[in-house]
């Protein structure tokens, strides 16, 4: 029964991913015809603004208070440790995407970080690898698609998750489904640990964004447009750093100052 269930899940996932890729591909041709590269393509702005308002209501009622409470009762050392553990658990996904992008050096760095931090950093609680020069560099399948030449596609705002695009939403689906840890937990009837990890990731990321979003909300004439622009700038900087010509420049960290996570998980 369990194998049958996973076959159905896999079939559904493949169909959804194929649809997302088709949407991204179709929108890519539309984008090339209607706007210049680098511009933000937001054909569903009215709908996105509605979803943005829904998200803000949920955020201010639940997510932001939870993040502020987490910051208030948890020492920074512990919060940093939680971030390090979550990054360490993501190492296989980062490594796989570096390999798909042809970045062997980046994949080797991900593997080295995982081995060092797991062995000598209390299971990843301490980022020992960073002290040796192996800094954390997030990677995801949305970036891989971009390196392969796939455009953003239309901008999308997903309540609770945050800003995205047709391409990045496809990347999120692929990364989530192919994550080895998720596959292991679901195949051993330990799904609760996966959902716990998701909750921890959400709180950890929202806490890291508290100051940045407060500043953006306070100083923006149009908060929606400001969030959209910040998302595109961060994603483009990450993608440029992963392209072969940009890897040397990546050492200068062109997206320094933004929280290190694959999505702005709000």
Write the layout of secondary structure elements.
Elements: H1 2-34, H2 45-73, H3 76-89, H4 91-100, H5 104-120, H6 128-131, H7 141-147, E1 155-158, E2 162-165, H8 166-178, H9 180-187, H10 191-208, H11 210-219, H12 223-242, H13 247-250
Helix pairs in contact: 1-8, 2-10, 3-10, 4-5, 7-8, 7-12, 9-10
Give start-end ranges of low-pLDDT stretches.
Answer: 6-33, 248-266
Rg, Cα atoms, Å: 19 Å
Count structural domains.
1
**Overall average pLDDT:** 84
Spatial arrangement of strands, main beta sheet: 1-2
**Sheet with most strands:** 2 strands, antiparallel
Number of H/I helices: 13
How far apart the termini lie comes to: 36 Å
Q: How would you classify the helix and strand content by structural class?
A: mainly alpha
| Helical coverage, percent range | over 70%
Order of helices and strands: HHHHHHHEEHHHHHH
Binned strand content: under 5%
Number of strands: 2
By oligomeric state, this entry counts as: single chain
Shape designation: globular
Structure description:
The protein has 266 residues and is mainly alpha-helical. The protein has one domain (2-250). It is 70% helix and 3% strand. The protein contains 13 helices and 2 strands. It has a two-stranded antiparallel sheet. A hairpin with a 3-residue loop joins strand 1 and strand 2 (162-165). Helix 1 runs antiparallel to helix 8, helix 2 packs across helix 10 and helix 9 (180-187) packs antiparallel against helix 10 (191-208). It is globular. It starts with a helix and ends in a 16-residue tail after the last helix. Mean pLDDT is 84; it is low at 6-33 and 248-266.
